[in-house]
Amino acid sequence: MEGSKTNQTKPSNPGKETPKTTSNESIYKGTIIVLVVIIAVLTFMLITSRQSLKEVSTEKTIVDELNAELNEELNSVLAEYNQFKNEYDSVLVQQDSIIQANAEEIKRLINQQSDYRRVRRQLDALRQITQNYVHEMDSLYQENEVLRAENVEMQQEIRKISRESSQLAETKEDLEGQVEEAAALRAFEIEANAIRIRGRGREEVTDKARRTNKIEVCFTVAANPVADPGNKNVYARIADPNGNIMRVSDSDAYSFTFQEDTSQFSMKGEFNYQRTDTDLCLEWIQNIDYDEGIYFISLYTDQFRIGEASLMLE
Question: Which of 12, 179, 205, 217 is most deeply buried (CB count within 10 A of its CB)?
Fold first, then answer.
């Protein structure tokens, strides 16, 4: 009996795991889960970072485009300002260009050994023009000095009146505004042409004195948003190559007053100014013989000298 008890063995259970094995598997599963979570978090962060970088790049591109647009607008504004500033000296620049152009023409004729009398006539005409310019500039300088002195006295009087009465100060501002508006009127794109009238009234531009039947001057009065609108007079004075003003008559009917001086005009026109660019043309039509040389044209309104041009006839 004892031997039988001693030989009895406890039956094994292969389907049942030991506690140690179960613990290891739990650790492995937990580690895997943690790694999966970490990978998911890193993947999310990577996608978010890429999206943020893309948005930053897009924003930078938009900012660069806006800056480029602003620079372009700034350059445009500066260009318009410089152009407007340079137009204040347009009269002097045009006078110089007229002299230089005629001087080059004379040099060309000399180099080509053209007719001596023709070159001499043009040279004399150019000398007359330069002398007229010098005289006009000297007169303008003297008038400007007088105006400056008068302006100093006027400013003193205005300050005195302003202290005494606010109503008179408003009147002063109105008067100053009217002066500025009148002075702002100017002409540009001035074009003077000699016209030949053929059969059936057909017209063509010519540069030959003997073929000229009339002189036409076209120009544009510049827009000015603060100018006083309304009907205005415009006058043209044409000086022939000898410096004589071409005119119909010496009577008062063919004269105008500018800065307290009375002058004869060659042509007169009227226009309605509404603060916009206004195109005008004036014609000189007289049955006369035109001399060869340079014709000088000056344009005026009742308050301002608005431009000049020249015409060369051979």
Answer: 217
Whether the CB-CB separation of 281 and 217 falls below 8 Å is answered with yes
Rounded CA-CA distance 278/299 in Å is 14
Which two tokens mark 140?
């303008």
Instruction: Quote the CA–CA distance of 275 and 288 in Å, as a whole number.
Output: 38
Beta bridge pairs of residue 193: 216
Tens of pLDDT, residue by residue over 22-49, are 677 778 777 888 888 888 888 888 788 7
- Give the integer Cα–Cα distance in Å for 147 and 155: 12
pLDDT-based confidence at residue 104 (cuts at 50, 70, 90): confident
3-state DSSP call for residue 303?
A: coil
303: tokens are 């308050």
Would you state the structure tokens that stand for residue 22, as one six-digit string?
A: 């179960």
Give how far the C-alpha of residue 234 lies from the chain's centroid of Cα atoms, to the nearest Å. Answer: 25
- For residue 188, the Cα-to-chain-centroid distance in whole angstroms is 12
CA distance 13 to 209: 135
Which of 2.40.50.320, 2.20.25.110, 2.60.40.3880, 2.115.10.20 would CATH assign to domain 91-313? 2.60.40.3880
